[in-house]
């Protein structure tokens, strides 16, 4: 302050020299810490990459070709870095163990992330989850950088009006004249600034120079999420937005707020590129290039973009919950020394500054969470119709196996997203479409299996009787072509001979198509119900048209034969 009074030009030279030296020190400290965190995050990403995790290419075959006949069942979704293989074989519908609630999804992941974070800080493990590394970097350095900027701005009198306040000394209206004279004579003049006092233009330039060159270390860490584990872009974005709001009220931290705004823009751009790539991958997917031009979809089961989408959605929902928690933690962070002084001044003036600032930061954290939630919902709205449309086009290309393909994929999608769809409006409408199509595919598949079964001729005869009864009376039916009692008895004998073996063959065909999981049980129950319903109707028709020709075996006997099969 003596220098400011005696030689203002020398103070400017001191400011420049101090900020150059401080900038070099800050960059060195930040580079060392960011490098260590980047190495930890890279080690964790590399380990998860070796386990087949974090690649969200919707059309990538995971665990081999989609022609694989082995059942591939997604594992239980407990923590983020615990992926199931993108099931492509029959029976890959077994997703009943996946948690239904996003908070349940996040509980295991949050515990695992916190444990890894503490283990990394203790030095017992080399890896650290990327979003934890990001939170450590921002939470550890941004308050420190803001405090350093505020300290030197205060020390070197960079706030607007400091020269006038320094020249005028203490308030001339001070009640104690003795204290006033002592204050005027004192070298260590205490400057009292109003809340939110801005920096001078030169001060802003000086602080900006002091904090220059820091963005690269932050970008190097966030870029890791752009190459893999892209769902982590959203929690990184939420944390950056929350810190931007946290620092916005501090004049000396304006360069940091601008840095965070730039980082948020880069993260949004990376997310937009990821979403565009996913959409393009689905639209360009062609199963024939993978299966051969002549095989059609016979060997396709759960399509890669269906299984990958379900995995991505679950991991994305975990990431969103963690992002909201990280943003809330920023809002709850302790205020800086400058903010504390401002709050004390506001309280002295009768304003409730502390609660007001907390309310603003909590609102900002909620806005950050809503922002990333909206980004995820937009991806769902863009991807889901394309997924369903591409599935329909693929299934329509094969009349023989199309319904089976629809049933497996709509069944997988519906079961994997059932719990989440009940909680997330953005997913619910698309899930309802998939469920309706699953029901239609199930009906079509059941009809195909009945037509393929060796019992079909008798069931088809029942359809013929229904058609005849629309034009002739029941007694006249037996006089129609191929409808004599002898021909009916012959048809029953040839069709129902060895019924138990024929039912086993039918069950085996369904099992071959769908594996032995939950989807098989649903489909087999539907086949059994449809066959018995038509068989009972046939019995009624025979009673009307052929009173002396009972149906053998009876519906009750056929039901017992169903129970005796391996499928039950």
From TrEMBL:
One of its GO terms (cellular component) is plasma membrane. The lineage of its organism: Eukaryota, Viridiplantae, Chlorophyta, core chlorophytes, Chlorophyceae. Residues 339-349 have a biased composition (Low complexity). PANTHER family: EXOCYST COMPLEX COMPONENT 1 ISOFORM X1, SEC3/SYNTAXIN-RELATED. Signal peptide: none annotated. Residues 57-109, 339-362 are annotated as: Disordered. It comes from the Eukaryota. InterPro entries: Sec3_C. GO terms for biological process: exocytosis; Golgi to plasma membrane transport. Residues 204-547 form the Exocyst complex component Sec3 C-terminal domain. GO terms for molecular function: phosphatidylinositol-4,5-bisphosphate binding. This is Exocyst complex component Sec3 C-terminal domain-containing protein.
